[in-house]
Amino acid sequence: KKISDVLQKSAPKPGVPADLQNLLTQHFGENRSVIEIEELKLSDSCFLPANDLTHSFSSYLKEICPKWAKLRRNHKEKKSVVMLVLCSSALRSLELIKSMTAFKGDCRVIKLFAKHIKIKEQMNMLEKGMFHIGIGTPARVKALVEQDALYLNSTKYVILDWNWRDQKLRRMMDIPEV
């Protein structure tokens, strides 16, 4: 059997904190000490409830972030975002941007992916403008953080697009590069 056949028959289930903890332990387990691995553990209070797959993206965001208007008004820092959404691809990022119109209101959204957008352009946009939501791929977000173009100190929410599967039925965390 092909893995895609097995995945196609399996019902999607919402991600849980243990999934991320297991992934971190697997990834860092070989080259970290026991103490360093222990420091990687996040308490369940660090996690918001996962989308139980009955919500649209906008309604899920409204549920987990009921005070969004206040957070948005108070955000004044450049080179940072209040909410960071990580997706497996640029196309998925665009889908989520379109589907969150009911939630975002008049806040500014920046696209943080490589498809047709050079990293220098994104660095200039982050430096000159103020953005509330950043949606992009892990590789581009990592590159922007490493080049000090994106600061995460004022980020209140990091949302992982954990359950969505691409045409090969892979989730974001199933892709080795992520």
UniProtKB/TrEMBL annotation:
A GO CC term attached to the entry: 90S preribosome
Leader peptide range in chain numbering: none
Lineage, top ranks: Eukaryota, Metazoa, Chordata, Craniata, Vertebrata
Entries under Pfam families matching the protein: CMS1
Gene of this entry: Cmss1
Domain of life from the UniProt record: Eukaryota
Species per Swiss-Prot/TrEMBL record: Vidua chalybeata (Village indigobird)
InterPro entries per record: Cms1, P-loop_NTPase
SUPFAM superfamilies reported for this sequence: P-loop containing nucleoside triphosphate hydrolases
UniProt protein name: CMS1 protein
